[in-house]
Amino acid sequence: MKLIRELCPSAGNAHGIFSINYKLKGEFREDFYPKTESLTGGGEIRIANAQLNGMKIFEELSKASKKSDVNDPHLRDFVMRSAIRDNKIIVEPFSIKYRASARTSKA
Prior knowledge:
The protein is mostly beta strands. Helix content is 15%, strand content 38%. The protein has helices at residues 2-7, 56-65, and strands spanning 14-25, 40-52, 74-85, 88-91. A four-stranded antiparallel beta sheet has the order 1-2-3-4, with no helix packed on it. It is elongated, with a radius of gyration of 17 Å. The relative contact order is 0.19.
């Protein structure tokens, strides 16, 4: 998990049920920790049911759409595929279905 936190720090703010299926290859340092700059590979992240907090992409979508409930979304049945090469994480295009939360007001 330390490697995932290093590669994707925002994952530390996700809470729920998710899985990561990645195949990576690369070199090890003397302490047998992977040299992140040498990693290549890819896979997918599956979110069964999770709350994502503090992710920049959703903050920007929230600002652009002028809908505050887009920020810190609750995702279900979501799959994101990505690859690592040239010391970068490349995320494949994905879709998210958005349903506005029901708002109630007191009279």
